[in-house]
Every structure is written in structure tokens, then in C-alpha cells.
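Recap slide: NitT/TauT family transport system ATP-binding protein, sequence and predicted structure.
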Amino acid sequence: MLTKPKAAPGTEASPHPVAVRLTEVTRVFGDPRSPKRVHALGPVSLELRAGEFFSVVGPSGCGKSTLLDILAGLNPPSAGTAEFDGQPIRGVPDHVGVVFQEDASFAWLTVEANIAFGLKRQGLPADEIRRRVDYALAFMGLKDFRHAYPVQLSGGMRQRVCIARTLVLQPRLILLDEPFGALDQQTRLIMGDELLRMWRETHATVLLITHSLDEAAMLSDRVGVMSARPGKFIGTFETGWPKDRDSRIVTHPHFGELTARLWEKLRVETMKHMQGEARGEA
Ligand SMILES: Nc1ncnc2c1ncn2[C@@H]1O[C@H](COP(=O)(O)OP(=O)(O)OP(=O)(O)O)[C@@H](O)[C@H]1O
């Protein structure tokens, strides 16, 4: 059997033992009285422990990005409450960093300027910006590319720039929406290791959306499986991995058992989604 982690990682670094609390959150797009409205999400209730690494998997279109947008303050819930560090989320909360799948680096800025962008907007002193940027460049293995432009980098390196740009803001909650979706399998594994290293270092709470069960099983403390739309959590799984894990955990004897349990839960929902698509409902 998988064993539970000894303690919620990073709990000591946060003033609140529960970083994120969603209570009966739903999201409906369009006029609620219109037959064309889309009930995208919920009701969903979820608590993320401070310092927890939580991944979300679910069928396509089940409302995963909608959930992330609510936590990022980009999209309010239609009903229910969403809180971060005990406060209702209204607008983009301080200390929240978001990384999306698409390459969101600024093509006209160097790597260094990309990473410094948010810090300058925050109006931090120049020496503090330089200190944080230097650290992020070294941490993400980008030191030799500080003066390069994104077009001169590989897809994996560009995504590292985007992660570094989030990292320097020192967020307490990091939201990632399929951040490695466009990368090849080997690069995904290496990027996963870097993400774990960053998570350990910062004590941040992480919510990762991924289509990859392997990625969810490898990286997370807990994995939440969502139903077909409107997405609800139909199961959460503790992985039981130690905090100092890395991609070699995929060879652990329990890894296959864990991904099989995730797939068992997800398989039925994926079929429901595909049947809905065939009826033209998706
Ligand atoms: N702004 C919007 N207006 C209307 N419908 C929307 C809007 N945003 C999302 N939707 C719908 O809500 C549902 C959930 O979308 P969402 O992008 O959250 O799903 P997802 O699980 O992230 O999908 P995927 O896995 O394919 O990325 C979909 O049916 C989508 O078409």
C-alpha cells in the first residue's frame, strides 16, 4: 500500500494551514435562463493544504481551466466561494503566479528582461530585481542565455523562462495550466524535476492541470480526478511520495498501481465525454 506523507510539506512556511478553499463553487457561462448556457464546473468543494502539490486530471472540456481561472481571480464563480489564505478571491490575488501552456514569453525582450518584467511592474528597487533575476537564471539553468531572445531558444527553454518569470515574483500559490503540454516526453520529465525543485525551495502551494496521468502521479502529493462536464471531483488520491522525489519515481513499484487507479476513475468519465461529443453536446 502507498503510505501517507509524514506531514503536509511547507506547512510551517504559511500563516494558514489551508491555502485554498473552494466551497460549492459552480461556473455557468452565458445567461442562466438561456438553453445555450454552458454549465462548465461544479459544484466543487476542495481544500489545498499550504505547501501541497495538487494536480487535477479530467476529461477534455470538464472545466479544469475554468477552475484555475477562478483561483487566479480571472473569472468569478457563478455561485459558491473561493478563498486564498482565508480571504475571498476578488480580482487577481497578490502572491499568485500563473503559468500557461502556450509560450507566453515576450519575443521582443531578452531572457533577462522577460524575467525582470513583472518585478519592474511591481516597482522593486533595481538591485533587488538584479538579485532575483540572477538567482532565477542560475536556478533554471539559463545563465548563459541571459542576453538571448526567445526565438533563439528551444521550446523547453522558453517554458523555463516563463516559469522563471513566475518564480521571481515569489508567489505563495502557483497555478499551472498544462505548462509542459507542448514539450516532448523527455523534456517534460526534466521540466517536472525542475518544477519539483522550485516547489521544495519556495514552499509554495501548487495546483497543476495536466492531461498526463504519469505527470500527475509523479509530481503530486495528491491528485484530484474530475468528472465529465460539469466537472466535479469524483476522487482524490494521496500519492504518498517523499518530498525529495524526482522523475525516477516512475520506476517505483507503486507508480504503475497509482496510475492504474487514476485511469480506472478517469476512463468512465472520458467515455462519457466522448459520447457527449458524438451527440454534439461538447
Ligand atoms: N468564456 C466562455 N464562454 C462560454 N463557454 C466557455 C467559456 N470558457 C469555457 N467555456 C466552456 O466551458 C467548458 C469547460 O471549459 P474548460 O476550458 O474549463 O475545460 P478544460 O477541462 O480546461 O478543457 P481542456 O482539457 O480541453 O483544456 C467547455 O465546454 C468550454 O467550451
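The CA atoms of residues 54 and 96 lie 15 Å apart.
The beta strands are 18-29, 38-49, 53-57, 79-84, 87-88, 96-99, 173-177, 205-209, 222-226, 233-238.
(End of recap.)
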